[in-house]
Write a structure and sequence with these properties.
single chain; 204 residues; Four Helix Bundle (Hemerythrin (Met), subunit A); 7 helices
């Protein structure tokens, strides 16, 4: 859960410049923008978008495969950032922004493709819209804020639910799968609003 979580200083600033790796030197020279983790985040974002286009074209299984692959890359970027010692506040924001945009684009596709009821989509989108707005507001005020465990878990469950909704559509509406997906949506919402409370109160 803390792979992208960092202090106010990037990893490479915690060690002497002479002992930094080539990757850390590049990260330092570019202000934290050019890092392996950010590169993987961009690739994952592109894969997710390509998968969403496939879904809009009625290629549900191809879209699901690409969507899942893109989200797995979102896990990989944090692992790589941790291994290479290139975690930074920029990477943390980059990863969180990619998470939110991918989620919103996926929800938009689900609406366009008429995959589920609008009220389900609205429920899923509320915490995912308010949280980044709150984070942006607090950062503008100079208040340090990090992703919480509840927020990360809520996002993970939201994605499981989104993929589940697409699976329900692809499989023609399996009752057991549908019930399971809606249970996951409920848990995701509870965690999402709990995370929103954490962000608003500054509690971790």
């Amino acid at each position: 859960m803390n792979l992208h979580r960092t202090s106010a200083k990037p990893d490479w600033e915690k060690i002497p410049a002479s002992k930094r790796t080539v990757i850390q030197k590049i990260a330092a020279a570019t202000g934290g923008y050019v890092t392996p983790g950010n590169f993987i985040t961009i690739i994952g974002f592109g894969v997710v978008l390509y998968g969403l286009l496939a879904i809009l074209n009625g290629q549900f299984w191809t879209g699901l495969l690409l969507l899942t692959s893109g989200r797995l890359l979102d896990v990989a970027d944090g692992v790589v950032a941790n291994i290479t010692g290139t975690k930074s506040p920029i990477g943390e924001i980059f990863d969180a922004a990619a998470d939110k945009f991918e989620t919103l684009f996926t929800i938009a596709v689900i609406i366009v493709a008429d995959i589920t009821n609008l009220y389900v989509v609205v429920a899923l989108i509320i915490p995912q819209v308010i949280i980044p707005m709150l984070i942006f507001y607090k950062k503008q005020k100079g208040i340090g804020i990090h992703p919480t465990r509840a927020g990360k878990l809520s996002m993970a469950l939201t994605w499981i639910a989104l993929v589940g909704l697409l699976l329900v559509k692809a499989l023609g509406g399996q009752i057991f799968l549908t019930v399971a997906v809606y249970v996951i949506i409920g848990v995701s919402l509870v965690l999402g609003f709990y995370a929103l409370w954490q962000y608003s109160t500054g509690r971790d």
